[in-house]
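ok so dumb question maybe but i'm new to this and my supervisor (M.) told me to 'just get the structure for Folate-binding protein' and walked off. so i did the thing. is this what she meant?? sequence i used:
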Amino acid sequence: MDDNPQPAADRYFALPGHALITLEGRDAAAFAQAQFMNDVAMLEPGRWQWSGWLTPKGRVIALFALLKRSDEATWLVLPDADAAAMATALQRFVFRSKVRIQVRDDLHASGRFGAPAAASGADFTGDEEAGFELDAGSADAPRTLRLAGTPAPQDDAAVTRWHALDLQHGLPRLPASQVEHWTPQQLSLDRLRAYSVKKGCYPGQEIVARTHFLGQAKRGLVLLGADAALEPGHEVTAGSVAMGKLVAAGTDGARHLALAVMPLEREAASLDVDGAPVAEEPLRDGLAR
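this is what came out, is it supposed to look like this??
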């Protein structure tokens, strides 16, 4: 008998911690282009991309899915960040722009382990009455993310599995302790096509571009597995040598997982965290948008 029964592919479950911020108004797209690290101007209405907001020093404040509904409506689906705090922080940069920033508590995020009915890749579908669907999966791990007015039921096991798949695909689910510590390159966000080095200015752009064009990205994400629980912020060591730091952690039900920022070039060595052995595992592909 299976000790870890899998949720039904057609059953939606609530994704707690996910929140929606909307930017609406004549300057919504221009505001998003000036603030966020991916190229919103190249995004057609009806499509979405991974993106983020950086400090002036190029450190990641928040990662999110950015949906372009129209030139006057850009939506941010945040899996971890404090939406109210981020909306307040963004408001400080509105100045004379014609944009209204709002946390939408009336639309609830839910997930399902199955391919969307109509959405595919970077194309999302739906409307506010019927709800919206995003393709949040890969070929070997199909998933649907939905935004709808009716909340889905709670399912802790399904949420744990969803979180683990994010980590396995290299999508760092940053807890508060890891916010404003890491650059997009250190988090290997190029794997998700989540930032641009060609667009105009945005907070942190100079650091991101300099690192890219001077080839100074020396660290990136590594997926680690262990039998013992792993905690963000703890060091990865090889003997007495510090090799990196855990930035996100979870479990797939059978094994504990973590994403760590580690040197891109390093010799093979036995690794441990707090004296417990950890093993490097391959990252899945397929979440780039």
